[in-house]
Amino acid sequence: MSNLAGFVKRLRDIMRNDAGINGDAQRIEQIAWMLFLKVYDAKEQDWEWDDENYQSIIPEECRWQNWARDDKSGTALTGDDLLNFVNNTLFPTLKKLPVDASTPIKKAIVQTTFADANQYMKDGVLLRQVINVIDELDFGDYEESHAFGEIYETILKELQSAGSAGEFYTPRAVTDFMAQVIKPQIGETMADFACGTGGFLVSWLNQLQKQIKSTADADKYSNSIYGIEKKQFPYMLCITNLLLHGLDVPRVYHDNSLMRDVLDYTENDRFNVIMMNPPYGGSEKADVKNHFPDDLASSETADLFMSVIMYRLKQNGRAAVILPDGFLFGTDNAKVNIKKKLLREFNLHTIIRLPGSVFSPYTSITTNILFFDNTHPTEETWFYRLDMPEGYKHFSKTKPMRLEHFQPVLDWWDNRQEITEDGFDKAKKFTVQQLTEELGYNLDQCGYPHEEEEILAPMDLIQRYEEQRASLNAEIDRVLSEITSLLGGKAE
After folding, report:
1. In whole angstroms, what is the distance from residue 64 CA to residue 303 CA?
2. What is the pLDDT of residue 85?
3. Which burial class, exposed, middle or buried, applies to 61 when counting CB atoms under 10 A from its CB (0-12, 13-18, 19+)?
4. pTM
5. Helix axes 232-244, 105-114, angle to 10 degrees
6. H helices of 320-370, where?
7. How far apart are CA 179 and CA 182, in angstroms?
């Protein structure tokens, strides 16, 4: 265990001396593909143990145990020989592994994982040192493998600070809270259509694992998740994360969920539970909108994911989705139509307003968790504002949000009542009539008082202004058309 604690630091210290590694993002990416191969090698040893006819999809010379392992006899590849092998044999081979529709997922993931992977290191001696540190990990040992699952979380957190990579990490406290409230059951399927490094999938599995009573349960557990991730790098991290959590067949696909017509989804494409934090503020290619009915075709990525979720949630299914404030207050056509569909066809029972800095340092936009199910149209919606815990001004990398910070919500959840603090609503119930007729689908209720103190990052500020401007324009148009019709004219 002691060697685990300094694991990331040891790798960082070696790689700092390599001219090919430029900054955190590259270092983590370099560590990631080696870890994947090391973890996959441990899995393959299990699979060979269970099935004497097991055939690896990786050619023998490229299997970790045959080129990376150093038996200290002085014959291990190092220096230029190692660099030459990794750059000219290993990478080209793994990128071009023969994969087709019939290839089992557990084999196909090697090719998908390496399709866009990069090897940055230029010094073969340092590369050998890094490989040796990684090879010391013993994934055959349950304790060590479990401990490493936790270490892997810290590696994923490191990504947060590695520039743009931050967008695929939802704080563990948030995914754990959502999984706890969703209450997974054995036999249910759960999906995340923008799964990043797999935080929601892992939180779901951790909750579900407690209920396994038999081998039949264990099979259902292993087949309960489904993920899609558009970006190559988080996809690789996600697969490794799931292998580390004991999933032999991670049903996670490297694909873009928005590139399919939502009207084409059938019952087989639906899930009992959907938990996710859709990317927002993202701009998709213009043709993405063509996959959505005209009235739902928004230019905002999070809105489009919201439609995908509604089309892929089974009858009686449950969903928990993180969305930015812009979704709540937005009154442009697409947002209102998405909210109409949500309230008419689904039961939006709870909206939890999250404190501003949950996702800091990489976005200051305030977010919310929407909980809804596919049981009946919405009749009433509860709002609950989660305030900053005592003694915190805001969350940060060194003081992140923790699961216990959700305790006030959990206490309130099963025994709901309206709460007012300092003249502001903290928890309140609205009927669907109030939300639609009186509030015009503005779901921005029980918000945080004193918003004028909020200081947003410049890009977040611009996005907030653009969303507010779009909403204001839509509101003006609506009022003008009402006035025009009252005066007996026709709206243009």
Report:
1. 43
2. 96
3. exposed
4. 0.84
5. 140
6. 325-329, 333-345
7. 5
